[in-house]
Amino acid sequence: MFRTLVYLVACQWWNRVLSQVRRLRQPKYLAAAAAGLAYFYWFFLRNMFLGPPGVSPFRAAGAERGIEWAALWEVAGALGVAAMVVAAWLFPRKRAALDFSEAEVAFLFPAPVGRRTLVHYKVLRGQLGILLGAVLMMLMSARSTTGPVWVRLLGWWTLIAALELHRLGAAFARTRLLDRGMTTGRRRLWVLGTALVVAAGFFAWVWRAQVMPTAGDWASMESMAAYAGRVSDSGPLYWLLLPFRVMVRPLVAGSGGAFAAAIVPAWAVLGVLYGWVIRSTVAFEEASVERAALRARAQAAVRSGNWQLLEGLRPRRDPFRLAPLGLPEIGFLWKNLIVAGSTFSVRFWVSLGVGLVVAAMAMKGAMRGSAGPPMLGMLLLVSAVLSLVVGPQVATFDLRQSFGTLEVLKTLPVPGWRLVLGEVAASWVVLTVVQWFLLVLAAVLGGRVPGWAERGWLAAGLGVGLALVIPGLNLLSLLIHNGAALLFPGWTRFGAGPSHGFEAMGRNLLMMVGVIVSMALALAVPGLAGAAVFFVTRGVLPFAVVAPLGALLALGLMLVEAYAGLRMLGDRFERMDISTELAAGGS
Prior knowledge:
The protein contains 22 helices and no strands. The protein is mostly helical and 587 residues long. It has 3 domains: 1-51; 57-292, no CATH class; 305-586, no CATH class. Helix 7 packs across helix 8. It starts with a helix and ends with a helix. Mean pLDDT is 75; it is low at 50-66, 302-313, 494-498 and 582-587.
């Protein structure tokens, strides 16, 4: 039976590769795959095989600063792995369920196959994804790790496979605890309590052993690395992190001999995890069948365009009361705010803001003269600026998620440009409000920066100017992203889940280049106009007035451009052939 399952897995892998290759017969997929391969070669393979030795900062540090840098990376990686292990016990709530398709459930579950064989099949089937993940991590870390290529690849495969086995074992253990009457809340309480006891014991040891960092330990990167090495190699921290350091150590091995000495204990841990998973199987069939059915319903809902109305989702509260009569844009705003979910709710962001302010106040009271609040404020300011670029790609509750219901949208008695405006309104409003919120928090927490009082008017002018241009920037960016979905539907996946491979990488790369070029062209005139106002009036008016004045003019011009873009996209929407466009998007 095991040979049959191996044959089934091999056929699945082969059919997946064939389906991806056959797609390259279409020019749009071939162009995207070529762009993805070029990007992959330029940023990964070229540096790996053609780059001169010694260009890596990590390699230079390892050669010039000593072996303590490798130990520092090992400890940092061990802490990250430990956090993933704790999260596997803390956050999941449901019973153990292996990921099977409906066809696999219908074929394997009624067959004379034991649970251990099904677990073996699941572990074997997941090796392709683990191997691809190991290759990707190897390439991404090629310039920051040492050792031959095969050392990095085998080290990453060992670590990712161990994390996956621990995830399965933790799921089985959680299910066994649920069967014995332990609720999710009690389990989380036990995990958090254990973590707090361990943390308290560690800090008590640090305080008693008097290994607190001194000014000399913070003098340079070398001294910081040496201090971290001393702390991590002595006392209880060494024993707490030892299993995780064993798994990370092959990744920092600088030679074949060091790797051979490090991989043996890592594989021993991997074998223990494998035996734990195989011997602790529980009744997962019912939950697996439920997951397979839920995924099938999700795929059917995506194909029909009703992905946001899936059964099993918790009912969501209306963002505001919708009047029976009113502007159609308000109706689209109301609908898409419901789609946005709790992540973009007012309660979530107010709670986050209160938590950040309380944390900053506690930090200030515990450590006099601490730079924590100003640094936190600067981090929020940087986050607000970065969200101008990342936000329109994340906040997709607009026309990009409504493409499956184009037949319904086309029948509405609403002009095309007003329909497009209504669809992007929710993403526009949410992004703008969140970014304004981050700016206000940054101003509150950064008020203790040295010299802030003397440069208060300067900072206020810059803050007000940035707040004024944010709505225009968000609207233009969202119109460009939604316009790309309307103009090139064959390159846009409308709610069908993530895509993978060189073709998806190239498609995303080409779309990103197009968005950047379009955004640069759209901001040319508003940027030049705002700069002209600044240089003309800076000698007459104070800076606190000059910056908002230039930003206000730029905002007005951006809104004019947005209106022109809305009219163009509205005409495009009205002239679309629904059957042709949906066939292109789903091919």
